[in-house]
Amino acid sequence: MEAVVDVALPVFAVMAAGWLAGRTYLLGPASSEALNAFVYWFALPPLLFLSMAQVPLPRILAWDYIAVFCLGIVATAVPALLVGRHVFANRGGALSRHVMVALFANTGYMGIPLFLAAFGPEGTLPAVIATVINGAVVTGLAIFAVDFGENAGAGVRRALLQAGRAVATAPLPLAPLAGIAWQVAGLPLPTALVNLAGLLGASAGPCALFAMGLFLVGKPLAAGAAEIGWRVAVKLLVQPLATWALALWVIPLDGEWLRGAVLMAALPTGALAFVVAQRYGVYVQRSSAAILATTVGSVVTLSALLVLLGMR
Fold it and tell me: In whole angstroms, how far apart are CA 235 and each of 87, 145, 297?
């Protein structure tokens, strides 16, 4: 239980502080938007850049870890797709949103802060790699899927261009790629740059968690209780268990990589799923409900996993 007190409790306490600030009207929705923008553009990118620029390239290219994390996503997407279509009768953009909220983990805004609190800056590499995969691959595919669905199969070129543009301008995948390029080029890291990135990166964790708490204020849970329950089970149970099974019996991982793969898969649905839903005006209320429900449920599941993975 020490892991729950020392790691999980502070993480969720910061989120609770943000929720209380919004619930008591000390801060409003504009504050959540401003904090999110700060984290997205100014706090997380320096942290991701520095993490990659200071780590040897062979360690970054942890192909076994990457394969397990991606296969865990696929193993979650298949049942989410089948149940979303045949049980809850989602089609087109709504079906792609259903799948995304069932598998899109909150790696950037919650995973990195969790790893910072648990393992320190030197232990965040698994979270950073998962964030790059989520930002570059999962988000790009999600945007492609919803745009393709909205155009009823007639806008393949447009969907490809839009997905490419979204990935090419997103700071979360670009920052670590810039860090890798800096390292490959053999460029020295000036002390001033390291200190600046360190100062900004240190604010990413608390600001992201506080912003998530603010974001959850007033989000409804009323719409589609059965569907929400299904997505909570898939996100918080199916995805981490499938990933754990893959890491044990298909592509064996151990140590920090096993721990990283399982914890990253066990994170609640990321807020970006709501952002994409709002952008297209599809599945908006059910996306916000899923984020709220999985975030609340992850208090129990993440705490349990921290204990099971040996953080006592």
Answer: 17, 20, 10
Residue spans per domain, the chain: 2-308
Most confident of 126-140, 161-175, 241-255: 241-255
Task: Assess contact for 231 and 94: CB atoms under 8 A.
Answer: no
Residue 215: both structure tokens together: 């974001």
DSSP-assigned beta bridge partners for residue 159: none
Give SS3 for 104. coil
The SS3 call for residue 56 is coil
- How far apart (Å, rounded) are the C-alpha atoms in residues 289 and 240? 21
3-class SS at 196?
Answer: helix
Task: Tell me the C-alpha distance between 210 and 218, whole Å.
Answer: 15
Contact criterion met (CB below 8 Å) for 250 and 75: no
> What angle is formed at CA 68 by the lines to CA 60 and CA 184, rounded to 5 degrees?
15
Task: List, in sequence order, the alpha helices (H) in 92-138.
Answer: 92-103, 112-119, 125-133
CATH number of 2-308: 1.20.1530
Read off the pLDDT of each residue in 226-252 and give the average, rounded to a whole number.
Answer: 92
More confident residue, 227 or 284: 227
Round to whole Å and give the CA distance between 141 and 131. 15
pTM: predicted TM-score of the whole model, two decimal places: 0.80
pLDDT of residue 124: 86
CB 232 within 8 A of CB 297: yes
Q: What is the pLDDT of residues 63-91, one digit of tens each?
A: 999 999 999 999 998 998 898 888 887 77
Residue 234, classified by CB atoms within 10 Å of its CB into exposed (0-12), middle (13-18) or buried (19+), is buried
